[in-house]
Amino acid sequence: ADQVRSAPGAGTERIGGLTWAAYDRRDVDDPGNVEYALVTTSGASTIVLGGTASDEEFAVLAAAIAKELS
Fold first, then answer.
1. Helix, strand or coil, per DSSP, at residue 30
2. pLDDT digit string, tens, across residues 26-47
């Protein structure tokens, strides 16, 4: 969670009908295992996807999760 909080915001993306905030740490010296993250809310829940996958892989995962939440 601290890694996402300290990452610069990279804008928002609309995926699967939800708005996801993007956080990109790929340009830091040691991003650890959270190079990139997408964050959204659904009701009282916050969903955080983080890791080292490509943008395309994050989009597929976010779309699948959005489908389950609708």
1. coil
2. 887 887 788 899 999 999 999 9
Say which amino acid occupies 40. T
Q: Report how far residue 23's alpha carbon sits from residue 65's, in angstroms, rounded to the nearest whole number.
A: 18
- C-beta separation of 39 from 23 below 8 A: yes
> CA dihedral in degrees (49, 55, 61, 66; nearest 10)?
80
pTM: 0.85
Of 30, 29, 13, 28, residue with least CA distance to 49: 13
Angstrom distance (rounded) from CA 21 to CA 28 = 19
| R_g of the chain computed on alpha carbons | 12
Tokens 């009908």 correspond to what residue? Answer: 17
